[in-house]
# Entry
Amino acid sequence: MPRTRADGKKTQIVVVGGGAGGLELVTRLGSHFSRDDFDIILVDRNATHIWKPLLHEVAAGSLDANLDEVGYRGHAYRWGYRYFDGALEAIDRAAQQVVIAPICDEDGSEVIGRHRIRYDYLVIAVGSVSNDFGITGVKQHCLALESRPDADRFRRKLLNQCLRVSRALVADPASDATVKVVIVGGGATGVELAAELYSAADALGFYGLEVFDRQRLQVSLLEAGPRILPLLPEKLAAAAHGELENLGVNVLAGTQVVAATATAIHCKDGNIIPCDIRVWAAGVKGAEFLHEIGGLETTRNHQLRVRATMQTTLDDSIFALGDCASYTPPGAERPIPPRAQAAHQMAQTVFHNLRAAIESRPMKDFVYEDKGSLVNLARYSTVGSLMGNLVGGKMAIEGRLARFVYTSLYRMHLVAIHGWMKGLFLMVVGHVNQVVRPKLKLH
# Structure
């Protein structure tokens, strides 16, 4: 396709979803293409972006999202794209238009009606949602950590419950009142949240709850598989297991959940675990509205099937990346796992291939490079594995080195969406905030 259309209109590239991959992509597109000939549009139902791997820290209150989130409107002005508030409802492939759902105010009144946005190229990067596997009561009684509102809701519930227990202890120092939290899912999100909760409990005593400490916190981590952190080598998963138990987490591997109620989690082995707060982190899937959207091919988990070029299998002008895309490399048994590093690499490939399509050059295939996995156990420890050039390729790292690498992943994301100058400045500000800001966000 030429840089300018035959009808004189700008070539329009629409990216739906401003997560790690989507935001990096529009940043690259906006800075590369001329605004005179190209219109780069980001559509997202939220006004701000926060790096999803940080949500467990926001939930526990150890990170103030107001300091780390990125406002799309200001970012769009800086990087040369446009931001539209809204949620994808449908794709009209014949007309090459996306249908955006109505936007309503808090009282239900319509702010912006259902409307359409044309596209020459469309990129779907809407991420994933929690997979409840159809288990009874999960949707009604369990919290998920999919967005900042989810994390804020969890933090409010946690602080309210801590306050209840604290007041009970003031009234009766001999009370056995505790805050009971059950986290279902022994992947990175569940493990990191479990550790972060104890870090938050240690800090509560400095902020008005003098009689509350970690002894009043009971966290159970449930995993259906034989061990937590199945993507890590067994030795490192065992190290994380031990760290969690040292903190006080009750780690229950090989425990399958069959139901959730307002007061407990019910397990297949008959065990009933009473709890005040229930968190579901047992897996992800594509959002249900993606199922065969626009007649495109999707998986059983509502992910869009893509080819090696990241183009959808049935439409060359529509790309997909990140958690909502399903791509199985040649010779592989499983699709690329839903990780932030995969979304980052996919965004790079889509950027290259969009340029290639516009300039009539050959596209390149996506090649996933596993940089390894890192799991942050709050301020206590970090365990993980990296693909490197040491000891034949894969090395295990622990302690301060792992902590440094974990932090570096976020720093790389900052540079990708802000550029080197502002990215480095934000890193410095982050260090200053660790000193001058409260250790816990309580509002």
Summary: The radius of gyration is 23 Å. Residues 311 and 319 are 4 Å apart (CA to CA). The longest strand covers residues 38-44.
